[in-house]
């Protein structure tokens, strides 16, 4: 372009700042919120000797019961190799065990151990005051409103009806 040619209007650029009107704004805001929450929850889990990736698998096991290892990836947002490493860690720590699935010698189900349940419960106790600190700046009813909106966003109506 030459100096005489007018520039096209600038597209809205993602900045990750409050008030960002770009089409990426929502994703960037959710990413920043995730980082903030993940940092606080990591702080709660550290004294228990586990990380968020371990807690994510324990959460699935508590919710679903014994789960075939290949199903843990989609349930936690991890790839196959990542799930294998996490399950290896959980087994080493005595928090989960792999057990054969009747009828298929190649498949293993992962099951939480009693010690895993203890750590899972302790994580909730440790996280509670930190979670309260995260929402301390919200006004009356805003925590519930935020939770409701995020639930509807993360689980669209078609998911909730199933």
Q: What is the mean pLDDT?
A: 88
Residue windows where pLDDT falls under 50 for at least 5 positions? none
Q: Count of DSSP helices?
A: 7
Helix content estimate? 55-70%
Q: What is the string of helix and strand elements?
A: HHEHHEEHHH
Global structural class? mainly alpha
**Strand segment tally:** 3
If you compute it from the alpha carbons, what radius of gyration comes out, rounded to the nearest whole angstrom?
Answer: 21 Å
Question: Ends: how far apart?
Answer: 54 Å
Shape: extended
What's the main sheet like? 3 strands, antiparallel
Strand content: 5-15%
For the biggest β-sheet, the strand order reads 1-3-2
What does this structure look like?
The chain has helices at residues 25-45, 52-64, 69-76, 80-92, 114-134, 142-154, 157-161, and strands at 67-68, 96-101, 104-112. The mean pLDDT is 88. The protein is built from 7 helices and 3 strands, in the order ααβααββααα. The chain starts with 24 loop residues before the first helix and ends with a helix. With 162 residues, the chain is mostly helical. Strands 1-3-2 form a 3-stranded antiparallel β-sheet.
């Amino acid at each position: 372009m030459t100096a005489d040619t007018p520039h096209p209007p600038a597209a809205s650029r993602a900045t990750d700042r409050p008030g960002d009107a770009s089409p990426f704004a929502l994703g960037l805001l959710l990413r920043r919120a995730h980082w903030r929450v993940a940092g606080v929850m990591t702080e709660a889990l550290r004294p228990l000797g586990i990380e968020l990736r371990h807690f994510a698998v324990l959460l699935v096991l508590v919710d679903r019961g014994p789960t075939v290892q290949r199903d843990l990836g989609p349930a936690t947002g991890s790839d196959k190799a990542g799930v294998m490493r996490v399950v290896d860690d959980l087994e080493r720590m005595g928090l989960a065990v792999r057990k054969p699935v009747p009828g298929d010698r190649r498949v293993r189900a992962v099951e939480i151990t009693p010690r895993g349940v203890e750590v899972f419960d302790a994580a909730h106790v440790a996280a509670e005051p930190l979670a309260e600190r995260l929402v301390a700046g919200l006004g009356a009813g805003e925590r519930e409103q935020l939770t409701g909106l995020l639930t509807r966003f993360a689980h669209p109506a078609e998911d909730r009806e199933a």
